[in-house]
Amino acid sequence: MPSYISQLSVRSHPTLLRRLGLWLMISGVVLGPLMTGCADNSHQKSTASVKGTVSANGQPVTFGEIIFSPIATGAEGGKSAIGTIREDGTFTLATYISGDGAIIGQHRISISPVDPTKKLPGKLPKDFQLEVKPGSNTFEIKLEPLK
Predict the structure, then answer these.
(1) Based on CB atoms within 10 Å of each CB, which residue in 28, 39, 111, 119 is the most buried?
(2) In which order are the strands placed within the sheet that holds 65-70?
(3) 82 contacts 94 by C-beta, under 8 angstroms
(4) CA–CA separation, 91 vs 108, rounded Å?
(5) Segments in 10-111 forming alpha helices (H)
(6) Mind listing the pLDDT tens digit for each residue in 62-74?
(7) Best CA proximity match to 68, nearest among 89, 47, 88
(8) Are the CB atoms for 47 and 96 separated by under 8 Å?
(9) Residue 37: pLDDT over 70
(10) What is the DSSP string of 73-97?
C-alpha cells in the first residue's frame, strides 16, 4: 500500500471522515436530481403514434429524414417529431422518446436527404400539411417529380 494512503488513516484523522461524509452527502443532494433527469414530463404535450411510407415515381424513397413540425395555434405548438426514412421507404416518428409519434394536431411536413451528396428523387407539395389524430396514424407520402 502506498505510504500516503496509510498516512490518511481515518483513526488518525477523524475530521477527514466527517468532511468526506459531508462532501458525499452534499454531492448526492446536488447531483441526484440531475442524474435522474428530473423526470418532470409536465411540459410534454400528448402524442400519437405516427408511421408511414415515402415514395417518388411509384418507388420507395430509400434515405432521408422526415420532420413533422406542429403548426402553432395561439400559445400552442410544440416540439417537432423526427423520423429516419429507411431503405424500404418506411418511417416511424419520435418526439420525446423513440417511437412515441408526434404531437396531436396539424403539422407542416419537411423531408431532407441528410447526406448533402445525395438528392431526393422528388419534392413535397408547397406548404404540405398533415393532421395527427389521437390513436395510431399511418401516412403514405408521395413526392412530386422534380422539374
Answers:
(1) 111
(2) 81-84, 65-70, 105-112, 129-132
(3) yes
(4) 16
(5) 14-35
(6) 999 999 999 976 5
(7) 47
(8) yes
(9) no
(10) -TT---PPEEEEPPTTSEEE-BSSS
Q: Is 52 helix (H, G, I), strand (E, B) or coil?
A: strand
Q: Which three cell numbers stand for residue 125?
A: 407539395
Averaged confidence pLDDT in the chain: 82
* CATH no., domain 47-143: 2.60.40.10
HSE-up (13 A, CA, CB side) for residue 32: 7
What's the pLDDT score for residue 136? 97
Residue 142 in this model has a pLDDT that exceeds 90: yes
Residue with cell 413540425: 69
Q: Which DSSP letter does residue 142 get?
A: E
Q: CA nearest 140: which of 58, 67, 63?
A: 58
Cell of 7: 498516512
